[in-house]
Structures are given as C-alpha cells and as structure tokens.
Amino acid sequence: MKMRTIALGVVISLVLAVVAFAGGDQEGGAGSGERPQLKVFLLSEDSNRLTLHQDYYAPNVGEQFPDFDVEFELPGNAYVQKLKIYNAGGDLPDVFWGMDFVVESGNALALTDYIMNDGFYDMFKNKNGLIPFRGEYYSISPGQDAYFSSVLWYRESIFENNGIAVPTSFDELLAVCDQLNELGIVPISNQAWPLANFMFQDLISYGDPDFMIDVIEGDGRFTDAPALEAARRLESLVERNAFSRDVAVIDHQSHVELFTSGRAAMLYHPLWIQAAIADVADDVGFLDLASMSSTSEILTGWGSPFNGFMVSANSEYKDDAVALAQWMVTQDADYWTIAQGMPVAYDNGVEITGMSEATAAYAAMFESNDVVALPNMLQLYNEAVRAEHDVSIGKLLTGQISAEEYVEILQQSVEENQ
Asked: Which residues pair with residue 140 across a beta bridge?
C-alpha cells in the first residue's frame, strides 16, 4: 500500500478506521477494503467454549488464515436469542454454532459437497460424528457427543448380595425389577429426559433394529408396530414400578444419590454421568439396552444435525468460511482429546489413554465395523416436536396416557411441526 503518497489527514482517517479483532489481533478493513473479513459467532456460556476461544481459536487463526481477518463475537447467555435476530434479518455471521431454525429458514449453507470433495468427511473414523438432515450436512463438529450412548449402570454388590442375576434380556429386566421392589430397593433411578431421548429409541432398536434405521432415515412412523411395541415396553417398566415415584420431576442430584447411596440398584443415564458416580465406580457395571437383544447390533449415540459449526448461506466468502469452520473443528478435536482425554469422531491422530472402562468399551464399539451407530432420533426433529414429546413422555411415565396415546401424540406432532 503506497501510504507515503497519501495526505496526512487521510492517513489518520485510515488508521482510525482500523478495527482490532479478537481473532489473533488481526486488522479488518485494511488497504483498499477488499480484504475478506469474516465473523464468527461463538457459544460462550461455558468454560470449555471460552477456553477454546482463548487458547485455540484466537491465538492461532491469524497464522492459519493470513489472507483474511476474523472477528469473534461471544454473546454469553444471549446466544440463541441473538442468533434468532441475526437469522430473522438474513444477516448471519459467516460461521456460527448452529440451530434447527437456521436450517428451516434456508439460511444455512449445505456443506455436503464441500466436505465430500475436500476430504474432510474422510477424516472421521466414526461417521456418526457428522449427522445429516434430510440428506444434507449443515453442521460440522469433531463429534465428541457421538460417543455418549446411554447406559444401564448397575451396582454389582446389590445384585451379588441378594442373589440376583444381571439381566440379559428385557423380560429378565422386568423380573429383576420385581425382585428389587420386593427388597425395597428402587430398581432404576432415572430422570424423564434420558427415557425420552435414549430409552425409547433403545427399546425400538431392541425389538426391530431395521425399523430404527427407517426412523432415522425418515421412513418410519411412530404409530407403526415396532415403535408402539417399544412404547409398550416402556409402559410395562412404569407399571412394574421400575423407576422412582418422582421420575417425571426428580432433579439430577437426587437422581444420582439414589444410585450412589445404594437405594437404587440401577441407573439409566448417558456416559457423561461417570464423574458423578465416581465414588462407587469400583462397584459399578454397565449394560446396553439395545444390545440385550440377540438381533440388534445398533448403538444409540448423541448429537444433532444442527449442533455444530454452520456457514451462512448468504456469506460473501463461502469457501473461506467453510475452511475456517473446518479448522475450528480440528481445534475442538485437539482440545477434547488432548486437554480432556475424550474420544472424538474426527481422527486427529491422538491416542487417548486413561479412559474409563465404559467409555473405552463404547468408543471401541462405536468405531467397529460390526456395529451400526445411529444418531439420537429426537435431535433430528425441531424444537416444537421435542417440546411436545417432553410433555407426553412425562404423562406416560406418570400413567396419564397409554402407550397407544403416546405414539399417536408423537406422530401427530411430527406431521404438524416437522
């Protein structure tokens, strides 16, 4: 830039116009104004996301992308509200953490061709880490949530001391619930949301894994026989007093303490509960509900087709924005594997040691060619469907509606809102 030929007043004006961005202290709007400037809208309400910004994105983005500037916006707890405002105005940041309403409004860039053609997709050792929505990929993440299957944890000492065999089928699970109730022990400590988000799907997979795949692909209806049978199995657990009486409203701490105190023999919860039950870890085993069936080789993962980095369909710099989003995924992968010791679907070459027995076992299964790892089905639906389902599952657990009514309500909600 030939700054020496420009009048002093213009020089001062240009200097005052320079903006110092959080992305590696880079300048925006330099020179002729043609230099690309991208904006990233970050989740920033928890310590993990703040650490990622401070220690991974901001210090390194300038060196990684010298040809454009990056501004990071961290709205804290106002993230969703502000994203809705950006989306409604059609003025989304170039890269942002996604939500379903952005896809539904048509403002999220379809990333399928990008990630397939540039080799990014091939870097995932567990493809469940990338979840499509209606045949397209709209968000990308390292897939750290993909490994969080829900497990039926059990206290080994309670089973051994009372001569109760660990169940290997659903019918045996019902019989075990009867035995534990006779002893005055809560069979399964639970909150409503793991039952809604995991157990119903596990019970569909238990009875008919092929139908479960149809549901994920959008070809199965919840009023079809396999889904109704799964709802009846869930209803039978309610009728056998398998859960604590306050299952629909119990708080997380009380839910955990029932199990750690020995007042409950089992606990159904995703793998991330391990830290909370660490005090009794030496007395804990685990089962996968779907795998109790001899016909099922399906695991239920976590994650959503919306919860990852998205790119605005209206971005002026789509190629640069996609490259930036992909790089941020690699930074996330390094953080979760190196700093947190957690498995991720993206293969960054890090070998993790020290995982708990359950996490290591499920990581191996999720990455096995012999097991089909499916995303969580309810995360494929929008907020309205999930909200309706949260209400209806609570009613099923408290006996206010039947299994037949439950699946009818869920299917109607899908048809009206999806």
From this structure: 309
Instruction: List, in sequence order, every beta strand (DSSP E) within 9-165.
Output: 19-20, 27-28, 37-41, 69-73, 95-97, 150-155
Quote the distance between the C-alpha of residue 385 and its chain's center: 17
The number of folded domains in the chain is 2
Same domain as 292, residue 409: yes
165 and 265 housed in the same domain: yes
C-alpha torsion 305→307→311→314, nearest 10: 80
Half-sphere exposure of 72 (CA within 13 A, CB side): 26
Q: What is the CATH number of the domain that holds 322?
A: 3.40.190.10
Q: Distance (Å, rounded) from C-alpha 123 to C-alpha 147?
A: 17
CA angle 99, 231, 243 (to 5 degrees): 90
> 3-state DSSP call for residue 357?
helix
Please state, in angstroms and rounded to a whole number, the distance separating the CA atoms of residues 401 and 382: 23
- Please name every residue paired with 20 in a beta bridge, in sequence order, or none if there are none: 27
Going through 171-329 in order, the beta strands assigned E by DSSP cover: 186-189, 264-270, 284-287, 298-300, 309-311
Could you tell me the pTM of the whole model? 0.77
Question: Residue 199: which domain range?
Answer: 149-300+381-417
- In this structure, what is the dihedral angle of CA atoms 6, 8, 14, 20, given to the nearest 10 degrees? 130
Q: Please name the residues in contact with 374: beta carbons below 8 A apart, sequence gap of 6 or more.
A: 128, 201, 205, 212, 213, 216, 298, 299, 300, 301
Give the model confidence (pLDDT) of 360-417 as tens digits.
Answer: 888 888 887 777 778 888 888 888 899 999 999 989 998 999 999 999 999 999 999 8
Instruction: Please enumerate in sequence order all residues whose Cβ is within 8 A of that of 224, keeping only pairs 6 or more positions apart, or say none.
Output: 211
Three-point CA angle 214, 218, 222, nearest 5°: 75
Give per-residue pLDDT as tens, 310-339: 999 999 999 999 999 999 999 999 999 999
Long-range residue pairs from 10-19, CB within 8 A, at least 24 positions apart, any chain: 19/71
- Give the number of other Cβ atoms within 10 Å of residue 282's Cβ: 8
184: tokens are 């005055």
Per-residue DSSP letter, 314? T
What is the helix (H) or strand (E) element at residue 372, kind and residue range?
Answer: strand 372-374
Rounded distance, CA 176 to CA 186, Å? 11
Q: Are residues 224 and 241 in the same domain?
A: yes
Rounded CA-CA distance 231/42 in Å is: 38
Q: Hey, which residues does 354 pair with through a beta bridge?
A: none
